[in-house]
tRNA-binding protein (Haloarcula quadrata), 114 residues
Amino acid sequence: MGFTETEIDPARFLEDVEMRIGEIVDVEPFPEARKDVYKLDVAFGDETRQSAAGLTDVYDPEDLLGSQVVAVVNLGTVSIAGFESECLVTGVDSEDGVVHLTPERDVEPGTRVY
């Protein structure tokens, strides 16, 4: 494995990319999407946003409900099969599928990630 991306200014990254801890408060199947994804409602303290997340290989809906995730909240809205995805739940590829990133212990939803 080698890192292939060019280096960026850390201050610029933190200014441009806003990541926050969210709590998944609703999970629904999304059969209309071309890829196998869930419709998620993610609460960030006093605000809730929707996300289409490809976590179906690893998680059943009841496993996701109430879990905390790391999400990018300032990418704008993307329409996926008529569903407005308003944040990007981060994850990594594993042998089983995509695993979402989560803090090692619970933190207040809406907390900024640095």
The chain has a mean pLDDT of 93. The chain has two helices and ten strands. Residues 27 and 63 are 10 Å apart (CA to CA).
